[in-house]
């Protein structure tokens, strides 16, 4: 009897989580569309050179929203499982965007570059050990 009660609670929480993730996905999609429209407006400006930094920032924001949308998709496709690799990719993209914003501050740029290096190393180790574990399990 207790087991059935716990199962019902677990199914209810899973349902609430799925609805919340779906709502977040819809909101992220709205922001993605807004950034794409903003990028299109920036690209139609006659003098693109003056808006180069702004264009690159919006472009990287679009990539971030694409990555977040792929996280939401991955959540539903892989039955509520999101790979650590996806989070590392989002971190690298976000830090690259931050470098574009703080490119005139040497210390911040250096720290962000070091953080990107550590994330790339973490991604490399993650892939290496994941493939190592897969070969041992087969």
UniProtKB/TrEMBL annotation:
It is found in: Cell inner membrane. Its main location: membrane. The chain crosses the membrane at residues 12-32, 52-72, 84-103, 109-129. Keywords: Cell membrane, Membrane, Transmembrane, Transmembrane helix. One of its GO terms (biological process) is cellular response to phosphate starvation. This is Protein PsiE. One of its GO terms (cellular component) is plasma membrane. It comes from the Bacteria. The keyword Metal-binding does not apply. InterPro entries: P_starv_induced_PsiE, P_starv_induced_PsiE-like. It comes from Leuconostoc fallax. It is a multi-pass membrane protein. Belongs to the PsiE family. The keyword Iron does not apply.
């Amino acid at each position: 009897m207790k087991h059935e009660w716990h199962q019902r609670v677990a199914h209810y929480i899973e349902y609430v989580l799925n609805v919340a993730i779906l709502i977040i996905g819809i909101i992220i999609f709205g922001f993605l569309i807004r950034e794409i429209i903003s990028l299109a407006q920036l690209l139609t400006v006659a003098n693109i050179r003056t808006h180069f930094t702004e264009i690159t920032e919006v472009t990287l924001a679009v990539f971030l929203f694409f990555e977040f949308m792929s996280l939401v998709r991955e959540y539903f496709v892989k039955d509520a499982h999101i790979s650590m690799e996806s989070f590392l990719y989002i971190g690298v993209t976000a830090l690259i965007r931050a470098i574009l914003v703080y490119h005139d501050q040497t210390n911040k740029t250096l720290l962000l570059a070091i953080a990107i290096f550590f994330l790339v190393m973490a991604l490399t180790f993650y892939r290496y050990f994941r493939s190592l574990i897969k070969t041992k399990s087969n």
